[in-house]
Amino acid sequence: MRRYIHIVTQGTPNPHSLKFVPGKDVTGDMTTTLDFSAAKFATISPLAQTLFSVDGVTRVFYGKDFISVTKEEELEWPDLVSEISELIKMHYKSGEPLFTGAID
Question: In what order do the strands lie in the sheet with 67-71?
Answer without folding.
Answer: 8-11, 17-21, 67-71, 57-62, 34-36
